[in-house]
Amino acid sequence: MRKLRARWTGLAEAVDRATPRDRDRAVDALRAFAILGVVLGHWLVTALTTADGGLSNTSPLAHMSWLAPVSWVFQTLAVFFLVGGHVAARGYATARARGNSYRTWIGQRLGRLFRPVAAVLTLWAVVAGGMLIGGVELDTVQTLVRLVLSPLWFLLVFAALTAATPLVARMNPLWPLAVVAGIDLWRFGLGGPEWAGWINVAAGWLVPYTLGAAWSRGAFARRGPALLLLAAGGASTVALVLWGGYPASMVGVPGAAISNLNPPTLAAVAFGLAQCGLALLVREPLARAMRRPAAWAKVALVNLSAMTIFLWHQTAMMAVTAVGLLLSTDLPGLHTVPDSGGWIAARLLWLPVFAAALTLCWAAFRTYEQGRRTESRTPRRSPVRGSHTHTGSRVPARTRVTPAQEITHA
């Protein structure tokens, strides 16, 4: 244990030394917290039960509505889109200043986003086919595949907004916010068609994305605008839930008549505004915390494999659930109906097991996101992710990249 701790300390200090001075570590920390919030949220509110014979998907929120405030803590997608808009807007401005074409810039941005997707789809195509051939019920296979594919909607929306960065980077966030409000009024107040709500998939996430672009232009250099976002967004969310008829949960609940997330509602967007305001307010404390090598190395490591973690976390949970079936069909917190405090306590004990399974997935599939770990023969600037514009050290031809370089150049 002492040797392991010493190795980690050495790696953390190497990462800290290799990180350029002008890198905004708070941005990386916000992205890491957003990803981990989504992962923990899914692990806490998703339950695969054997109550009906096969595996079926349910949620503790469907059985214990008083848990709805928990979703307010772990529904962190707005922060991810805020950071995404900030990084993309600054990255595109930097690319133009260097004379790079839009095609080159978008190719680099989307390449790392979608490389890990191919591995997930390939594996699950084989697994689903094998289960069907082996006699597993179609409903069970469909439940599992839906859980695996559900994160992909987020990537598609994020990719579309990233591709549209040159068009939307200077858009006033009030415009997409007005679209969301208008669509909700049409759907819920005037009896409009349900399909109209899917317009909000783009408009709803465009709100924090354009806020991030405004952040890149210095719109939140002072604390006042961020405080306004937090106060107005929080008050609006409470009002919409208490008097507007919106559900309290900020994630989808199986069987609920209205979902705040699929598609996004005005309540979800208002809540996202409050989250963005809070994220912008904690930048300075985060930046101070990230000066500690141990804290910064953990954040850098998460950012290095953010998409891998996001894409495989549901698979990790399902793998543990499947292995658990070999022992029993009613393990508390794993296969049982999530309708009591006992289930919550048991699920919390399963979280480290899910994390261990996710670590195995990360070890097996992280290379699809990170790409090659060797530098080309021609020295070049360090690959830059997002808005962190710096020149890295030159690596001799065919020299293997060290873990510290790999993390800080992510």
Give the key terms:
410 residues, mainly alpha, two-stranded antiparallel sheet, 2 strands
Note the total helix count.
19
- What oligomeric arrangement do these chains adopt? single chain
What structural category do the secondary elements indicate? mainly alpha
In the predicted model, the low-confidence regions spanning at least 5 consecutive residues are 373-403
User: How large is the share of residues in beta strands?
Assistant: under 5%
Mean pLDDT: 86
- Helix share bin: 55-70%
Distance between the termini: 28 Å
With strands numbered from the N-terminus, the spatial order across the biggest sheet is: 1-2
Number of strands: 2
String of helices and strands: HHEEHHHHHHHHHHHHHHHHH
Shape descriptor reads globular
Q: In total, how many domains does the architecture comprise?
A: 1
Please outline the major beta sheet: 2 strands, antiparallel
Roughly how many Å is the radius of gyration? 22 Å
